[in-house]
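Sequence in, structure out. Go.
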Amino acid sequence: MNVDSESLKKEVEAGMTRLVGLRDEVRVRLHLAGMEIKDEWAKLEPYLLDIEKKALDATASTREAITHGLERLETLRKKMD
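Output:
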């Protein structure tokens, strides 16, 4: 594995660690959330599961998907505050 692909793999792993942790936090807090937040979660969760599957490939598009997923997940978490 060359340096670029190793670097990409590490970025993907770090992003997935962050995404999974944030996802788990949101799941815990969902029981207190209103219907609007629960509806948003229902739309977001399948997308996050797809990202987790793609992360196994560790490609540049995977890194972009993780970044986008994190942005959406962080936006949803902020609405829960």
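Check: The chain has one domain: 3-79. The mean pLDDT is 90.
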